[in-house]
Structures are given as C-alpha cells and as structure tokens.
From TrEMBL:
Protein name: Xylose import ATP-binding protein XylG
SMART domains xrefs: AAA (SM00382)
Record carries keyword Nucleotide-binding: yes
Domain ABC transporter: 7-243
Molecular function terms from GO: ATP binding
Record key words, sorted: ATP-binding, Nucleotide-binding
Annotated InterPro entries: AAA+_ATPase, ABC_carbohydrate_import_ATPase, ABC_transporter-like_ATP-bd, P-loop_NTPase
Signal peptide positions (record): none
Name of a matching Pfam family: ABC_tran
PROSITE patterns listed in its UniProt record: ABC_TRANSPORTER_2
Length: 257
C-alpha cells in the first residue's frame, strides 16, 4: 500500500470578507517530489501558501498530515508539523550577515551569551549541504547576489529540518545562472526526501524540475498534470481557462492523483 502524502488538502475554502478567494481546493504534496502550483495572477496561489503556512487559516475543509487530520491555525502549527515557507520577498535583513539572518529569533546561547562560533559552524555546515556559492558568512546580506540571497532564505527555512518546503516564485528576479543554482538546490532537497511546493510562472522551470503540477484558476482547481507526460500547451490551456468546460474529475483521475 503506497504511503499517504505528507500533506493533503480536501475541500479547503478561504474567504476575506464577502470574497471567497479559495473554493473546494484539493492538493497533495508527497515526500521526495516537487509539485508546481500554477495559475494566473489572482488565481489564489499565494493565499493557498498562506493557508498551508498558517498565516491565513482555512475557513472550511480538512488538512491531513501523513494521513491524519491536523489543524493549522497559526505559523507555529505549520512549523511544528515540519512545514517551512520561503516567501517571494525573502524577508531577509539586509544589514545583518548570513549567520545573523539564519538564526534571527532563534539564536544559540552559551552561558547566557550568543554562541557566535556554534552558529557560524552550523551555518557553514548547512550551506555546504546546499551550495558553496555564498562567499562571506559575515558580510551583510545586501551585498550578496539575488541568487545567493535566495539560497540564504532557503537555508534559513531548513534549520528546523522541515519535511515540506513552500517556495513562492524563487526564481522570479534571477538571471539564468542564478536560476540554475536555485533549481539545482531544489533538486537536491527533493533527493533528500523533502516535499516541495513550487509556485512559478516559468513553465521552463516547471518542466525541468517538477514531478507534478496543479493549476488554480479563479480560486479553484483547474487541472492536475504529470509534468513528464503533459504538454506545455495542455498546462497553458488549463491556466488560461481554455479547458474549463472539461470535467475536472477526469483530469484528476488521468494524472493518478
């Protein structure tokens, strides 16, 4: 019997005032797989990430972790389960160094004093598992390239050894070389068994990296795809709504979800 998904959403709804932003969302994130979350602007992608991360709890629906029902009502709930999020703005402090950013709010102390040596050792150890392209752990983060800052943000999210990682447009502002570095990093995380939810508008990145894709349109599921077999045209049609009249349940079955 196959293992249940790390995270599963069933019939999840989210409303802001009188506006229902998400309606009856179904989603599964599996260990060691990259799930691309696609959709046009306003489709509900960022709201769904906030629901999963506990920033904006769902109003209706069920959430399961490894097959058992759980409640995610605040960010601490998500973190305690093993869910980490890297938002598009990265939320880094540019004036702090790499070590300071990684341990901000969870500093290591020894005899009541900051243990800078241990924090730097752990930072170096973590970055070596991801990449060797961050040249100076003690220089201000603002001096790093966009790709290096993205690496720092991902490294910070991995301090708690999460099992699910949510990435909101991680390559949106990056050049080709920096994008390649970030995609390689995500690929290594998948190899370590992490389940990754990747929000992206770049179908090239999706085809190169993701195992499966879920499309949102106007706050609803509008297609599930095996990235290895689905054509780019099929995915684009789902994003734009050209396939809205096709039975969604059939797409769900064909993808093996």
């Amino acid at each position: 019997m196959p293992a249940p998904p790390l995270l599963a959403l069933h019939g999840v709804c989210k409303r802001f005032g009188v506006v229902e932003v998400l309606t009856d969302i179904e989603l599964e994130i599996h260990a060691g797989q990259v799930l691309a979350l696609l959709g046009d602007n306003g489709a509900g992608k960022s709201t769904l990430v906030k629901v999963i991360s506990g920033v904006a709890p769902a109003d209706k629906g069920a959430i399961e972790w490894e097959g058992r029902p759980v409640s995610i009502r605040r960010p601490h709930d998500a973190r305690d389960l093993g869910i980490a999020t890297v938002y598009q703005d990265l939320a880094l402090c540019g004036n702090l160094d790499v070590v300071g950013n990684l341990f901000l709010g969870r500093e290591i102390r020894r005899f009541g004093l900051l243990d800078e040596v241990e924090m730097e050792r752990r930072t170096q150890q973590l970055l070596e598992r991801l990449t060797r392209r961050v040249p100076d752990l003690r220089g201000p983060v603002v001096s790093l390239s966009s790709g290096q800052r993205q690496t720092v943000a991902i490294a910070r999210s991995l301090l708690g050894e999460p099992r699910v990682l949510l990435l909101d447009e991680p390559t949106a502002a990056l050049g080709f070389e920096q994008t390649t570095e970030v995609l390689d990093l995500v690929d290594r995380l998948r190899d370590r068994g992490v389940g990754v939810l990747l929000i992206s508008h770049n179908l090239g990145d999706v085809k190169a990296l993701a195992d499966r894709a879920a499309v949102l349109r106007l706050g609803r599921n509008n297609g599930f795809f095996d990235v290895n077999t689905a054509s780019q045209e099929q995915i684009i049609s789902s994003i734009t709504g050209a396939t809205e009249n096709e039975p969604r349940r059939a797409a769900h079955r064909e993808s093996g979800w």
